[in-house]
Specification:
Blueprint (H helix, E strand, L loop, with lengths): L2 H6 L1 H4 L5 H10 L1 E5 L3 H13 L3 E5 L24 H12 L4 E5 L5 H10 L2 E4 L4 H14 L2 E8 L2 E7 L9 H4 L11 H4 L3 H20 L8 E6 L4 E6 L26
Parallel strand pairs: 1-2, 1-4, 2-3, 4-5
Antiparallel strand pairs: 5-6, 6-7, 7-8
């Protein structure tokens, strides 16, 4: 790092758990963020400001006026602009020293797999059940760390998965992909604006902790936030021995938020 970088990230460097070595790790890291909506907005802003050296952001949607209530990475002049492009523009204004790849598409199939294979860590800030499971399958296949968040109405949740570890669960263990899934869409159900910021910021925090190796990961722990009472609840879960994706353990039942807010 040069003198400007040392100054920019000085408040990170002052942390014993992070320091210069940890910050250099972040600067060498590549994060893929799927979704530049409500969750992605907060996550992307903090990843960029924290100095993740390369950030790929994927979203096939365009900014709409209704998004501005909670998707704080976008501006009024970005309405009708692709969300990944809009997000990249804001991140570049915050930190011009990092590489930002705007993927103006909905990743799926081989394309999703290829982008996940190229990343060090994946943040699932998507807005549908199909994408969540596709991301999980690719992360397990390529042994990539995954941070998953969701928010709808006043309810939020976050956890992470690390396929590199022996015996760790995956998203399928926690929320099996069944044909009777009912998506909950914020366009119909609504979403409390600050809630997505809280969950998205926590996704960024978890990603940074995993990349540097700070503390204990959230693997096997689902944190759920009741935004009405501002109360957190932690549910422990384990690998499902019959899991169709990672082929192990069983998970304690938990309620999934089927649609992360945009």
């Amino acid at each position: 790092m040069d003198d400007q970088a040392l100054l920019r990230y000085s408040r990170h460097i002052l942390l014993d758990e992070l320091g210069i070595e940890g910050q250099e790790t972040l600067l060498r890291s590549h994060a893929l963020v799927v979704g530049a909506g409500g969750l992605g907005s907060a996550a992307l802003l903090y990843l960029a400001s924290a100095g993740i050296g390369r950030i790929s952001v994927a979203d096939g949607d365009c900014v709409d006026l209704t998004n501005l209530q909670r998707q704080v990475i976008h501006r009024e002049n970005a309405i009708d602009l692709n969300k990944a492009v809009s997000a990249a523009r804001t991140m570049s204004a915050i930190n011009s020293t990092i590489r930002i790849d705007a993927l103006a598409e909905r990743l799926d199939g081989p394309t999703l797999s290829a982008h996940i294979a190229a990343a060090d860590i994946v943040l699932d800030c998507s807005d549908n059940f199909h994408t969540r499971h596709a991301i999980n399958r690719a992360c397990v296949r390529h042994r990539k760390m995954l941070v998953s968040g969701a928010a709808i109405r006043f309810d939020g949740q976050i956890t992470s998965f690390d396929p590199r570890t022996t015996g760790g669960p995956c998203y399928q263990c926690l929320f099996p992909d069944t044909p009777d899934i009912n998506e909950e869409r914020c366009a119909v159900m609504g979403v409390f604006a600050p809630l997505v910021g809280v969950i998205g910021a926590m996704q960024a925090a978890e990603a940074i902790r995993l990349l540097v190796g700070i503390g204990q990961s959230m693997s096997g722990r689902l944190l759920m936030l009741d935004g009405r009472a501002m109360v957190w609840q932690c549910v422990n879960f384990s690998r499902d021995d019959e899991c169709e994706v990672c082929s192990r353990s069983h998970v304690a039942p938990a309620r999934e938020l089927r649609h992360a807010s945009q």
